[in-house]
User: What shape does this take?
Amino acid sequence: MRNILLALLVLASGAAGAQSFPSKPVTLVAGFAAGGPTDTIARLLAERMRQPLGQAVLVENAAGAAGSVAIGRVLRAPADGYTVSIGHWSTHVVNGAIYQLPYDLLKDLEPVALVASNPQVLVARTGVPAQNLKELIAWIKANQGKVTAGTAGSGSGSHVGGIYFANSIGASLTFVPYKGTGPAMQDLVGGQIDIMFDQAVTALAQVRGGRIRAFAVTAKERLAAAPDVPTVDEAGAPGVHIAIWHALWVPRGTPKEAVARLNAAIVDSLADPAVRKRLADLGQDIPSREQQTPEALGAFHKAEIEKWWPLIKAAGVKVE
Ligand code: MLT
Assistant: This one.
């Protein structure tokens, strides 16, 4: 009888612990500097997720190795749901094809939820001598290897976008790595670098403000948030299609209840009309409700790795 009571007490305290998640602030660890796409998405979510979670959600920027340092930081933290990895197509897919990672992107991470997806915008400093993409390509070819392209590090989305573009037009670019496209954008606005493949989430505001110029989006369709910017197919670099999706993961072994609470907080945030409008203005495509489950992210993540690793290796994306 005493043993049964003890077992019931242990079960009850376990259930209470799970229900009380989170009992302290949750941290989203982003792999790039403040002001860039990942940081922007993370802060937008963090602000809204505090309502359903009833706790503060903090954003930590752990830049390095195109987002890999941040994933390592999350995987060294206890698997309790309080330290969450926020990353995207390049951090959680591409990096596995080009870095010798000390972790396995599928086995060591537990999917939480897909958040949103956006294409890149090929942007340039205002002073580049080109009025459209064809003229920009001619200028890049006339200055073979001299045109500078800002990136968020080897293998980052901005780097891969630049490599795909350069390969497709038969030209070479000089890549200039930063801790994220946030600081790279400051240099683009200041005219220290020439071009960048930045995600719509941060590029569009700068374009609208007239601080940089947009030449094409890396998508098959124009963005509703930027209908004047042609697609790469329309403008002269056909087939350079890159969609960068952001998502959340926790270390494998995190209690199911914590994963469910975090997932529910994302689902709740993505259902909020104000959040949806903000994301749409930033050029983001929000996944359907069915695509927002941890299982859907797990299957999608695996499929993206299977699709992109051979392509990334064939494209010659290397750690520089
Ligand atoms: C960032 O936040 O700086 C970006 O997500 C980097 C990238 O282009 O991959």
